[in-house]
Amino acid sequence: MEKIKQSKFGYFFIKEDVVCAYHSIKMSTLYFDKKYYEEVKRFICANGTIQISEKALKVINRLKELQIIVDFSFDEKAYIDSILPLLIKDPHVRVMVLHMTDICNLRCKYCFIEGNIKSDYCRKNMTEEVIEKSIDKFVQITKDKKFRKRPAIVFYGGEPLVNWSVMLHGLEYLQEKYPQFSVDKVLITNATLLNDQIAKELKKHDVGVSISIDGPEKCHDVNRVYCDGTGTFKDAVKGFDILRKAGIEPSASCVMSKETVDKAEEVIRWLVDEMHITALGFNHVSIVPSLNYYDEKYENDFADSVLKVQDIIQKDYPNVYERRMNHKINCFIDKQIIRADCTGCGEQFSVSTTGEIGICQGYMGSRKTFNNSVFDEDFDPNKDEVFIEWSRRSPFTMPECYNCPALSTCGGGCPRNADVLTGTIWNRDLPFCHFAKKAQEWLIWKQFSLNRKNLEYIG
């Protein structure tokens, strides 16, 4: 008699009278009536030595085919080791984040950049020389390479429009020197410094714009304030109008803080119904020493809010794309493993105002990982030890993640968060775990509710 066991990557989810058996690597599912669940579990525990009903045996046979149940001798470490070469590659940088300035005209209370800047830090604007060298370096690194998405240059801060003249110089330099270079250009801005002339130039240079806005006025102005403490809502909304007048349709980046996390429905409906946003992303407050600590309640509330937003989008706004969840939905449907959730894991480098090259913009204040320079002709992040280390960070290279049902849909969250919390990027981003696990179960049951007729179900 063969001996069997439940795979390390096999899970059972129960909701009302339905059970979903799920394989966390293959992302395969089998739904069956709950009345067979106890028989199935007893059969597995008894190593297949007891008699069970015909329907329960049918469930067992399908679970074997899906490898949710495996032979007792099945080597699961060897199985995951065989997958790693397909997932874990050396760096393949396609994104450059340019810190146009360390200066911001706002004092957002949760800012993970500002929260990491030391008191003796010397703030600067990027110069024309640095932006030219940065563009040269980026083209050097990416030319003649193939990517899953187009290369992208992200204009970041501080508030990048504080240094608009140099940003414009960079756009003109890129157009004049590299007219055939196919690249996306994205501005991340609080929108308060936008004017008609800037918008006209952004349109001319085909720059996509993402505006940081946290919802209606009472939500936005809780944290997004000027230096004197007054709210920035009206000026941010004015920025949307300026861009649209110029023919630019901005996306939105929305932080759900502790003060607004319970207002998810109000926020999403305002963004779509009032601001007519069709592309957005919901973000949580990053871990910053002395500013924001790990708070289990907040992380759970944040996860619940993002899923609530997605329920509303699915029901009422099918043309709206929310980055955080839609990426997971698409990968789950296509059974495509999310190797890493962060572009810092092998796909990105950041450039400081003075031309230093690092991995993560979250380290701008401390300059951790910023060990190189755009002025070094020989530097290639694709061959750098630190970049190589970050490129190999994935739930699939972190054994403590193997026992999680969200293994293939998680991506590992934020390495910087893990580093701040534990001293190394190789531990879990614990705040993200709450969201990843809840999102995985949401995916399983949303699939069942929306597509039940086309799913395998044993009743």
Secondary structure topology:
Elements: E1 4-6, E2 10-15, E3 18-23, E4 29-33, H1 37-45, H2 54-65, E5 69-71, H3 76-87, E6 95-99, H4 128-142, E7 152-156, H5 164-177, E8 184-189, H6 196-204, E9 207-212, H7 217-223, H8 233-245, E10 251-256, H9 264-274, E11 279-284, H10 296-316, E12 321-322, H11 323-334, E13 348-351, E14 356-358, E15 372-373, H12 385-391, H13 407-410, H14 415-422, H15 430-451, E16 457-458
Parallel strand pairs: 4-16, 6-7, 6-13, 7-8, 8-9, 9-10, 10-11, 11-12
Antiparallel strand pairs: 1-5, 2-3, 3-4, 13-14, 14-15
Helix pairs in contact: 1-2, 4-5, 10-15
What would the average pLDDT be, to the nearest integer?
A: 95
Taken from the alpha-carbon principal axes, the silhouette is: globular
Count every beta strand, where a strand is a DSSP E run of 2 or more residues: 16
First CA to last CA: what distance? 28 Å
Q: Assign a percent range to the helix content.
A: 25-40%
Percent of sequence in beta strands: 15-25%
Going by CATH, the architecture of the largest domain would be Alpha-Beta Barrel
The major β-sheet equals: 10 strands, mixed
Q: What is the CATH top level name of the largest domain?
A: Alpha Beta
Structural class: alpha/beta
Helices, by number, come to 15
CATH superfamily of the largest domain: Aldolase class I
CATH topology annotation of the largest domain: TIM Barrel
Q: In total, how many domains does the architecture comprise?
A: 2
Global Rg = 24 Å
Question: Could you explain the architecture of this structure?
Answer:
With 459 residues, this protein is α/β, with parallel strands linked by helices. The chain has 2 domains: 71 residues, no CATH class; 295 residues, TIM Barrel (Alpha-Beta Barrel). It is built from 15 helices and 16 strands. The strands form 3 sheets. Strands 12-11-10-9-8-7-6-13-14-15 form a 10-stranded mixed beta sheet. A hairpin with a 4-residue loop joins strand 13 and strand 14. Helix 1 crosses helix 2, helix 4 crosses helix 5 and helix 10 packs parallel to helix 15. The protein is globular and about 75 Å long. The model has no long low-confidence stretch (mean pLDDT 95).
